[in-house]
Amino acid sequence: FGCCINTMANSITLDWSENCSATIHLYGATVTSWINNGKEQLFLSSKSKIDGSKAIRGGIPLVFPNFGPWEHGPQHGFARISWWKIIEQPTKMSNGDVTTVLQLTDDDKTRNMWNHQFLLTYKVTLGENNLTTKLEVTNTGSEQFDFTVLLHTYFRVSDINSCKVSGFLGCNYSDKVEGTDNVSETTKEIVVDRNIDRVYRLAGQPDGHLISTPETKLMLTKINLPDTVLWNPWTEKAAAMSDFDDLGYLNMVCVEPGYVSQRKILCAGETLTCSQNITVL
Ligand code: BG6
């Protein structure tokens, strides 16, 4: 099976087999699709822009160098609204996995917002039953900088009412909907049944998050991403977003590994390597 770069669509397709593939859009290095055994695992809004005029609504947008509103630039930073370069063509490795590597570096536009020199290297690897996205953040300048980073993964679920997400028990979280902080999670398996927007500290460690529906069980594990954001806009907030399907909230949940509750400091020349792995059980 061939992997290909679709220059017209500005995307890369990794093919593991006839019914197992992943697509990465060069705008934001956003993974827009992951099909495992013929079934799409990621939610992508049918109303999403994919022409580079707005961040892609769905898949796995990459949030850097700031999670949330930001005094220097757009919400969630500029990585998801930048055009990335392919630095390693899609290739099939000896174990059968297929992989590609993209890069983003500072330019006049990014330095105007955030005056730092950096290199982001993003490796996406597709296996028979798993997807791994690994990010390296390198400080290529001569002064330290600080940032937050997050892999904003939108999972596709057949019915949110029958979906359970675990890996938060005992973790402290801040709740953006309730306006509370330092709440301790007492639920082992969370059922998302309302607008949820929480930043859990040290969540999913060491066992990861299980995202389960009656049909599919996905295990999300992560490295060097201590926090996890759990988000679903629910009815009103979904309707208020021009690029979100009005009923799309019923078919998605965002479980987003990140380094967000504290800012990561990188000294000149240093690199942070972080990743998520999602496995279909
Ligand atoms: C989540 C945030 O990660 O992203 C939410 O916790 C936010 O507060 C959501 O609403 C979507 O953000 P955006 O910028 O893609 O609309």
TrEMBL record:
Superkingdom classification of source? Eukaryota
Question: What role does this protein play?
Answer: Mutarotase that catalyzes the interconversion of beta-D-galactose and alpha-D-galactose during galactose metabolism. Beta-D-galactose is metabolized in the liver into glucose 1-phosphate, the primary metabolic fuel, by the action of four enzymes that constitute the Leloir pathway: GALM, GALK1 (galactokinase), GALT (galactose-1-phosphate uridylyltransferase) and GALE (UDP-galactose-4'-epimerase). Involved in the maintenance of the equilibrium between the beta- and alpha-anomers of galactose, therefore ensuring a sufficient supply of the alpha-anomer for GALK1.
Q: Which family does it belong to?
A: Belongs to the glucose-6-phosphate 1-epimerase family.
Question: What is the designated name of this protein?
Answer: Galactose mutarotase
| Portion of the full sequence shown | 324 to 604 of 604
